[in-house]
Amino acid sequence: MSDIFRNKTLPSKPSTPQYFTAQPVSSSEVELTWKPPSHPHGKLVKYVIKGFHLKDDQAILDQRSYCKNITFRGDRESYNSSPSIISKLQSYADQKCEKQCEQQKNTDIDMCNDFEHGIDFDLIPIQSRKLMFETCSNFLNTFINSKCMAMQHSDETYFQNNMNENCTEMWSVSNVLHNITEIDGSMSHLFYQLNENETSKTLTRLKHFSRYVLSILVCREVVEQELLNSSKHVDSCSQETLILVRTSKNKEADVIDSDRIRVYVNNHTVNISWEVPTLINSLIHSFKLDYKRVDVVNYVSVCITMKEYESAGRSYVIKNMVPGKYHYKLQAVSLAGEGPFTSLKVFEVTNMDSLENLHLVLMILVCGCILIILMGVIIRTYFSRKLLQRNNIYSLANNPGYIGILVEDEWELNREDVVIQKIIGRGTFGTVHEGILMSQNIPCAVKSVSKTNFLRYHAEFLNEAAIMKKFSEAYHIVKLLGVVTKSHPPLLVMELMGRGDLKSVLVKCKETDNPPPPNMLTIIRMAAQVADGMAFLEYNRFIHRDLAARNCMVANDMTVKIGDFGMSRQIYNGDYYRKGNKGEMPIRWMAPESLGEGIFTSQSDVWSYGVVIWEIVTLGAQPYSGKTNNEVMAYVLDGHLLNLPRFCPDVLAAIVKLCWSWMASQRPKFLKIVKTLDIYLDDNFRSVSFYHNHLANDEAPAD
Q1: Cα Rg for the chain, rounded, in angstroms?
Q2: Distance in angstroms (rounded) separating the CA atoms of residues 423 and 425
Q3: Is the pLDDT confidence value at 161 over 50?
Q4: Which strands form 200-203's sheet, in the order they lie side by side?
Q5: Residue limits of the Fibronectin type-III domain (predicted)?
Q6: Rounded to whole angstroms, what are the CA distances from 510 to 29, 501, 518?
Q7: Of the ranges 178-192, 224-238, 664-678, the best mean pLDDT one
Q8: pLDDT of 106 higher than 70
Q9: Region 400-405 average pLDDT
Q10: CA 440, CA 482: separation in Å to the nearest integer?
């Protein structure tokens, strides 16, 4: 009889934990439960739980119109992937994908059909659905990669895109062996090791209404014989089981701040602007606006997608409104569903037709009186002007902006020290000559007021000199060299900008190629030079009110500087529009609040700066070409904007979009604009700019 030999085989890896489920407990907690594996294949020692935050993608959501098909992901509190589907996916991933795809074609189709039920197809564009499951790689990538689950770049390190090597690697949820928190304190990546006798775990510090990909595996004890057998890798842990869960929504989120809602009414058009809630359940995809006239029972309900809201400058325009008082309220709609309505607000649309008829009647009644008074004023003014010119008497208005300008100071020059040469510019105010400042032996530009316009423009001329004295420190503002006020006519002596105004230079580039059209870096440098000059004015609390390409001057080396404080408006007379008794206004460069309410601030200068960038990239084109000034006013107040050309640099396009925000408070400061463009600028700019040498760390003037 032969001997009996007894031998004990090595244990294999345990089967996966059973009944792995995830249930949201609150907006920041998820409870995980599971059962031990059916085949432990040894003594169990620990469970390992890993996971990461899977962010929703706004770009994908924008491809779907939530206003046409109103269903929300928030209708369901959790999104657990079917364990049977996960099991199929893991089993399939163990194979070499490229080699097995053709053989498993029928299996793929069945698996894709099953997997379809675990995905919210409303979030996937129709044109993308056909391609999602055409290949083996697409099938697996769709479950984890960006098309279906909006994977961010930071998460892609945990899933491998190369399906030709080891397909199982992509199912490893995370290689991070510790917890990682986000800026708001919530967990972005999770890692836990639990005792073998535990069958549940509550995950805390999660982000509200957010998706998390979670996995669990179980490990058994490694026996001594396995360690002695160095030829084989010891696989003591089971495969991972994956699950997808979303935390509950935060009931205090998706609240629009009623105090930050603004309404602008222009005739029968109403523009309503508001801010996105600061606390959001994942993503906002649309807004709901309800409004009604107070004497009407039912509300008119309008759905506004996030894409429409952003493209309209974070606002919504209602046209053809019937006169009357209106109630309205706003509501944000996120992936979790509808948020609370704002408090009831009120706006009023006046009956402009009735007012216009009343004005017409009043004008007819007093027309005769006005005509008589007007004729008397004209006659008196004519004879008074003749008398003043004959007696050589000059009068200055009592304006604080230039009072005391005739007092001699360090800026006063001797007339003999200024040699006037050829005319380089002419306007209704007078002339600009090229000249030489003999005391410094440098070329200069000399402004003077003509005798025929002396009374009208003398005060404004001296006011410009007083203003320019304050800004002699800024490199990107045309430098004042001195004034001549001892005799008439007075002279304003400035540095010579050899190429003239920016608009003329841009038009010449387009028409003659001399100088050649600016390249992208030159365009950005021009924009930065204008912004740096305006930053100096903004810091010193000075409002330009007339920023345009025609009022920016260009030196021989193509340096652009801010110039013509109150004088250049006569050079391009067609760019101005006289509205009532408010004087000539540059309508095409003005912000909505300036057009509608006559308000001028540094923020309205920022709007004008956006138009200057538009002029630069279009090589001196006229804004709103083909429209009259009245049409431009209505066009802007209705919320419309200029269209930037496709070749506009992306960084400038982004700045222009902010400059043309409907709400003035949302427009950037000039210092912020220079900071944004800093990476495109050279050391020559940094050595002379106001931003880099005087106020690099400040964002706004001190109070």
Answers
A1: 36
A2: 6
A3: no
A4: 18-24, 30-35, 200-203
A5: 256-353
A6: 63, 15, 10
A7: 664-678
A8: no
A9: 39
A10: 11
Report the candidate in 686, 685, 690, 684 with the shortest Cα–Cα distance to residue 671. 690
The secondary structure element, H or E, covering residue 217 is strand 211-220
DSSP code per residue over 465-525:
HHHHHHTTT-TTBPPEEEEE-SSSS-EEEEE--TTEEHHHHHHHHHHH-SSPPP-HHHHHH
Q: Closest by alpha carbon to 672, among 540, 553, 541, 539?
A: 539
Rounded-to-integer distance, Cα 518 and Cα 354, Å: 53
- pLDDT tens figures, 63-80: 777 787 655 444 344 444
For residues 120-134, give the mean pLDDT: 47
The CATH 2.60.40.10 domain(s) of the chain lie at: 11-68+183-248, 262-349
- pLDDT band at 561, cuts 50/70/90? very high
Six-digit token pair at 147?
């098309």
Give the lowest-confidence range in 222-226, 643-647, 681-685, 689-693. Answer: 222-226
Fold of 500-696: Transferase(Phosphotransferase); domain 1 (1.10.510)
Q: What CATH code is assigned to 415-495?
A: 3.30.200.20
Q: Supply 528's token pair.
A: 């930065």
Q: Measured between alpha carbons, how far is 523 from 617 in angstroms, rounded to an integer? A: 7
Tell me the per-residue pLDDT of 380-390, one tens digit each, with 9 for 90 and over.
Answer: 877 766 554 44
Q: What is the DSSP string of 348-380?
A: EE--HHHHHHHHHHHHHHHHHHHHHHHHHHHHH
| Each residue's pLDDT tens digit, 312-325 | 999 999 998 888 99
CATH 3.30.200.20 in the chain, residue ranges: 415-495
CATH topology for the 262-349 domain: Immunoglobulin-like (2.60.40)
Residue 55 is assigned to a ligand binding site: no
Q: Coil, strand or helix: which one is 52?
A: strand
* Residue spans in the chain of domains classed CATH 1.10.510.10: 500-696
Residue 400: cis peptide before it, omega within 30 degrees of 0: no
Mean pLDDT, the chain, as a whole number?
78
Considering 254, 501, 546, 575, which one is annotated as catalytic?
546
Query: Residue 393 is which amino acid?
Result: I
> What local confidence, expressed as pLDDT, does residue 695 receive?
65
Instruction: State how far the Cα of 247 lies from the Cα of 256, in Å rounded to an integer.
Output: 22
Q: How far apart are the first and last CA of the chain?
A: 107
Q: Is 546 one of the annotated active-site residues of the chain?
A: yes
The correct answer on CATH 3.40.50.1010 for the domain covering 11-68+183-248 is no
Q: Is the separation of the CB atoms in 325 and 348 below 8 Å? A: yes
The residues that bridge with 46 in the sheet, in sequence order, are: 195, 219
DSSP 392-411: T-------TTTTTTTS--TT
